[in-house]
Amino acid sequence: MTQRLALVTGGAGGIGTAICRQLAADGRRIVTTCVDPEAEGIEAWVEMMRGEGIDADWVKCDVSDHAACVAMADEVRERFGGVDILVNVAGITSDGFLHKMSADAWDKVIDINLSGVFNVTHQFVAGMRDQGFGRVVNISSVNGQTGQFGQTNYSAAKAGMHGFTMALAKEGAAKGVTANTVSPGYVKTSMTDAMPDKVRDAIVAQIPAGDMGQPADIARAVGFLTADEAGYINGANLPVNGALFCSF
């Protein structure tokens, strides 16, 4: 059986790296995107992954730029072949209360976190439909479900991401293409490690599980949803948040 190709946007980050490791353990070839190869240390990341026996590579792409995504997709197909699995991880925050938020802070978050999902997925979904197989997983956030102080831009983008996912699921179901969302709660990454202890402790105090999650917790959910056997799970939002927010 041909080894399936997984494209993970923003795969060199904390959660992205865990997802790449999980998909590699599931037998997938890995390609990730980066915006600034030098600043992101992408060559060292690839060397690290290959040192772990993982078939990983990278392409340059700003997911907020549709033309850049078209060029990236052409490069991926030329160098690696068709994409079978797409995981949209790339995202940013630019927090601030709405009455103090600049239009630029709004636009940047929406352009990367939401429009970026369209820009990248747009390049590969037709190929998935044609081959009768595809797995799309969009990494959202608990804050897209609950809202969060200072994150009108981020919460809107992450909620919109799941609306996109549900519509895409309906469009692709008859063609063997699934689209699902994973909504992490608070996860131990370099970003949360940089929080003041007082802020981090206040967050943990709200989590029934008693601690933040690990990137591997998110990665396991992605592995589950991207399995060849997961074709009947479609349009779902899988929360991974330690019971911080529960709904049905």
Overview of the molecule:
This protein has helices spanning 14-25, 37-40, 42-51, 66-79, 103-131, 142-146, 152-172, 190-193, 197-205, 215-226, and strands at 5-9, 29-34, 56-60, 85-88, 134-139, 177-184, 237-240. With 248 residues, the chain is an alpha/beta fold. The chain has one domain: NAD(P)-binding Rossmann-like Domain (Rossmann fold), CATH 3.40.50.720. A 7-stranded parallel beta sheet has the order 3-2-1-4-5-6-7, with helices on both faces. Strand 1 (5-9), helix 1 (14-25) and strand 2 (29-34) form a beta-alpha-beta unit. The N and C termini lie far apart (37 Å). The model has no long low-confidence stretch (mean pLDDT 96).
Notable traits:
about 250 residues, alpha/beta, Rossmann fold, seven-stranded parallel sheet
Please give the structural blueprint.
Elements: E1 5-9, H1 14-25, E2 29-34, H2 37-40, H3 42-51, E3 56-60, H4 66-79, E4 85-88, H5 103-131, E5 134-139, H6 142-146, H7 152-172, E6 177-184, H8 190-193, H9 197-205, H10 215-226, E7 237-240
Parallel strand pairs: 1-2, 1-4, 2-3, 4-5, 5-6, 6-7
What is the CATH architecture annotation?
3-Layer(aba) Sandwich
Determine the CATH superfamily.
Answer: NAD(P)-binding Rossmann-like Domain
Largest sheet: 7 strands, parallel
Rg, alpha carbons: 17 Å
State the distance separating the first and last CA atoms: 37 Å
Quaternary organisation of the protein chains: single chain
Low-pLDDT segments = none
Mean pLDDT: 96
Give the total of domains: 1
Number of DSSP E strands: 7
What fraction of the residues are assigned to beta strands by DSSP?
Answer: 15-25%
CATH fold-level assignment: Rossmann fold
Category from helices, strands and their pairing: alpha/beta
Shape: globular
Biggest sheet: strands side by side, in what order?
A: 3-2-1-4-5-6-7
Number of helices in the DSSP assignment: 10
Order of helices and strands: EHEHHEHEHEHHEHHHE
Overall CATH class:
Alpha Beta
- Helicity level: 40-55%
